[in-house]
Amino acid sequence: MNKPVDMLDVVIIGGGLVGGLTALLLAKGGIQATVLDAAPILDTEKVLSVANPRVLALSQATIHLLKTVNVWDKLARQMPYTGMQVWNKNGYGEINFGQASQKMPSDEQSLGSMVEPSILNLAIQQQMLQQVQDYRTQVKVVRVEQGVHCWIVQLADGTTLKTKLVIGADGANSFVREQAMIELDVLDYQQAGLSCAIRTAMPHQYVARQIFLPTGPLAFLPMASLNAEQAEHWISIVWTLPDDYADEYSALNDAQFMQLLTRESHHMLGEVLEVTPRAKFPLKARAAQRYVKAGLALIGDAAHVIHPLAGQGVNIGCLDAAVLCDVLLKDKQRGVWAHEQTLKRYEHQRKGQNDAMMHSMSALGFIETSELFPFVWARNFGLKQVENQATLKALFLAQANGLSSLKQTQYAI
Ligand SMILES: Cc1cc2nc3c(=O)[nH]c(=O)nc-3n(C[C@H](O)[C@H](O)[C@H](O)COP(=O)(O)OP(=O)(O)OC[C@H]3O[C@@H](n4cnc5c(N)ncnc54)[C@H](O)[C@@H]3O)c2cc1C
To answer: β-pairing, 184-200 with 279-288?
Structure first.
């Protein structure tokens, strides 16, 4: 006779950046989730010895949440930035936020921080191994099915789990979303992003820069260096291009590409001296038509993928995690767990905001897209107008740092 299956409080499918943060916030609030992730535990030595050419621009709200679950101090490297500068090659404006810095700024002085995804993933995994009792990696979920007042999750090894709540944090191609039959809206920008790390002759001085070229925006984002002597000279670039340009630039050899970059960036950091292999990725926005169903919630990229170059993807995912954990933990104190109304409160607080950000990215047009939300925001209002108005700049900073979205939650600063 088959052993009866225990009813779990919550199963999180996907233990990446957003799913991992959710599990850690719940653990801090006294709820142990079962976390199922398809990926293996990262090899620490390998992750630390290779610089990831892509960086995530983490907002102050995300940094605060990572501090709350003791992940922030475990990051092996990160690069804070104190200034942002954006201008148009064709000369209709420039905007500056914060200022350049001559030495490594403290957390308090910075506007945010650039972190390699693998470094962040490693720190989250390590913390989950300590804090989450049932964290399973290299797990293949083959079925997610609604039962009577529960969800049934089947794994490829034959295991069946029964849970009151499924949290789908399994990324852009979410299997949970598909199994729950939640429809998806997709917008293909017909552009590609070109990304790599470069070493420049001049130091970045902790400033994130972006130049609008006729082909699309080119962002220079400061990143941590593996070599102390080259600190402040390594940059992660993200170049948004129409598909045909992206193909052409990908095919150039390194010397040709470095020359092109030096020229197109107007020598803003002098000559480009070194370049790592380039990665090209298509740009698409996706939005789930709903985030919740009875006993099920989608968070992070499973719920929404905004223009990847907006630089806000993981930040809005972390805000999803915070709001969902906040409503769940508050109700738990009242003796309620994962009620449909609780989940709807989460959807109500997050979907409108996320959709609005996604639409503002799309409204900018397919060519003039940006690497960082601050830049997008600034261009929306007109670079000159924003540059000249202290109140608009302050409004922008409040919106970009994400802290206002935490205000009503137990994670408010
Ligand atoms: C080129 C590029 C640049 C970007 N730059 C930025 C930036 O500067 N700032 C920013 O905030 N965001 C940025 N983003 C977006 C950011 O990377 C994502 O928003 C973020 O990784 C989403 O986190 P997530 O946890 O929702 O999904 P993911 O990080 O994709 O994690 C999903 C997890 O689910 C697991 N999984 C998947 N399927 C299954 C399954 N069936 N069963 C079990 N587990 C499963 C995976 O193993 C993975 O661990 C960028 C994205 C791209 C592509």
So the answer is: antiparallel
